[in-house]
Amino acid sequence: MCEKTSRTASEKWDADELSTTLHAPAAAVSHGEHGDGQLFLVGEQQATMLEVYPAQGIVRVTGGGIELTLSHQGSAQLKPEGVIFRQQYDGTTTRLLVASNGEVLLGISPSHFAEPLEGLKAGFVGKEEVRSTTPTPKTRQERFYSPTAL
Question: How far apart are CA 97 and CA 50, in angstroms?
Answer without folding.
Answer: 11
